[in-house]
Amino acid sequence: MSARGYLRWIVFSDGRELKACDGRAALAVTEPGSRVVFICPIAFTEAANGQPEEAEVALIHEMLHTLGLGENPPRSRDITDRVRARCSRAKSLATQTLASAPPP
Hints:
- By secondary structure, the chain is mainly alpha-helical.
- 55% of the residues lie in helices and 10% in strands.
- The chain has one domain (3-100).
- The longest helix has 25 residues, at 76-100.
- The mean pLDDT is 91.
């Protein structure tokens, strides 16, 4: 299954009633191995509107948990930092590839 297909398989649900969604620290939460990701609507919407890359990173972070990745270790921040770094490298490579492509 592709990453896109896997992301479509995940069930996204409203997490506004969860304690983890009380503040603005968490954009989304899940348990390792669970198919359900709870979106913290206030924090996620703010991130998606102001820093969409952070919302994307949060979804990938939670997707890794659905695949079974636990936390502590690694720390939540470390997972997020690794996702952000990988996405930045991929974006940079895509930009370089487009810049070096011959004009149509």
